[in-house]
Amino acid sequence: MNRFSTFALTCALGATAMTAGCTAGADTDAGEAGDTATERELLFADEFDADTLDRDKWIVIGTDFWVNNEQQAYIDDPAVIAFTDEAEGADGGALILRPVFKPGEDPKAERNAPFVSGRIESQGKFDFTHGRAEARIKLPDNVGVWPAFWLLGNDQWPGTGEIDIMEYVGEKDWIGVALHGPGYSGETPLVNKYFFPEGEDVTDWHVYAVEWTDQQIDFMVDDHVLYRVTKPMVENYGEWRFDNDKYLILNFAMGGAYPFKTNGIEEPYNGISQATVDAVKAGEVEMLVDWVRVYAPK
């Protein structure tokens, strides 16, 4: 029995400490995810109704991690990973991931990041193969921020496969989605943008989701399929690496390769405008996450 099957079984039986996360909200809130998730087995959920991070579900990434010329150092601190029960429009509590302007605090001299921020992962706590992962998220209107919700495998990148459910670089009318793997990593051809309808943008609450099978991956916003990648599409570029366990990631990066590629800003920091720096200093920049849920395949 693989790890996915073991986890599903323990959720059903309530036999381990991890199952508190699996069953939370299953009866009362599952319908909010949309009809496609209703009547499906809930494998994992965090409603973020507590005032601290549930360490049975999440780990926190620290300062050693650095990719993509990002302009933040990740730390484990309430300044960057916080909780609120006062977020307008949230169903109960919400997770807050926020950058803080702290030049001189980065212990990596070669990076010397001017910001600190938060990144949480379920690696070692929960992973799954195929199903639906979704999160209800509200994002800020700031050029050069790079918050994301995504899935990653447990082996070496890019061979492990990466599913980017939502990436945002500060143009509030769209978010990006992508797949990465061997032969299609970095500047991947398997990428798309979702432009919100008139009157909506990232500063509203939206449910960002992926429906993942052994034959295709559907990226969704509010139950609208914005992009479908099939196994034959992937195999035009390299091997399909999406039949293995993947874990959840929520992070708030600042600047770096993707924002810079989009906005071309070099000063005051790579990919980040002065207006965004000022907004971070004022405590106005944050990503709110109402909940995260993972369902078994249909």
Provide a descriptive summary of the structure in words:
The chain is mainly β and 298 residues long. The strands form three sheets. Strands 1, 4, 5, 9, 14, 15, 16 and 18 form an eight-stranded antiparallel sheet that branches. The two termini are 19 Å apart. The N terminus is likely disordered.
Topology (SSEs and partners):
Layout: H1 3-13, H2 19-23, E1 42-46, E2 59-60, E3 72-74, E4 81-84, E5 94-97, E6 100-101, E7 115-117, E8 119-121, E9 131-138, E10 145-153, E11 162-167, E12 174-180, E13 191-195, E14 206-212, E15 216-221, E16 224-230, H3 231-235, E17 246-254, H4 257-263, H5 274-281, E18 287-295
Parallel strand pairs: 3-7
Antiparallel strand pairs: 1-18, 2-8, 4-5, 5-18, 6-7, 8-17, 9-14, 9-18, 10-11, 10-17, 11-12, 12-13, 14-15, 15-16
End-to-end separation = 19 Å
- Structural class by secondary-structure content: mainly beta
Largest sheet composition = 8 strands, antiparallel
Number of strands: 18
* Shape descriptor: globular
What's the tally of helices?
Answer: 5
* Amount of beta strand: 25-35%
**What sequence of helices (H) and strands (E) makes up the elements?**
HHEEEEEEEEEEEEEEEEHEHHE
Low-confidence stretches: 1-35
- Residue-averaged pLDDT, rounded? 90
Portion of residues within helices: 10-25%
Report the C-alpha radius of gyration, rounded: 18 Å
Brief account:
With 298 residues, this protein is mainly beta. Helix content is 12%, strand content 33%.
